[in-house]
Amino acid sequence: MTFNELTASQIRSAIQVTPGISEQHMFGGVSFMLDGNMCCGVIDDNLVVRVGPDAYEGALSEPHTRPMDFTGRPLRGFIYVDREGFASEALLRQWIDRGMSYVRTLPPKSVAQSKAAKATGVPLAMLLPEGHATAPRTS
39 with 67: CB under 8 angstroms? Predict the structure, then answer.
């Protein structure tokens, strides 16, 4: 997979002064992390937004959205937004803010969780906060 560099650049411009932001290549695209948790990203021409499980159905009822299902199975809490849904700077900012708002409710990822993600092949953004689940073990 690839990602639209123009969209990635627009996201970078919108979040460049936000403390705790980093960028990571995953899902065949680029993801933007806030304190180690994915908040948004780009795959192909799609904006990916992490809205969280509670806001998932509501976000899917909005125009130009659909489940993030690049593996063939929807990833609950993550949505795709088609280009029409973030065509203006204001719309893009609204989606980024929604992703960042949800991620701010999560604890920051620790270095140990980052290493577990790399060791197991589980994307960092998919690891749940400590105490909620454990990363799969490699044998």
Answer: no
**AA identity, residue 16:** Q
- The pLDDT value recorded for residue 138 is 35
In CATH, which of 2.30.40.10, 3.40.50.300, 3.90.1150.30, 3.40.50.360 is domain 5-108?
3.90.1150.30
Which residues, listed in sequence order, are joined to residue 49 by a DSSP beta bridge?
Answer: 40, 79
Instruction: Return the structure tokens found at 127.
Output: 């690891």
Length of the chain: 139
Collect all residues with Cβ–Cβ distance below 8 Å to 16 and sequence separation of at least 6: none
pLDDT, averaged in runs of 10, over the chain (139 residues): 88 93 89 96 95 98 95 93 96 97 92 52 44 34
Which of 59, 44, 131 shows the shortest CA–CA distance to 99?
59
Count the Cβ atoms, other than its own, within 10 Å of residue 22: 10
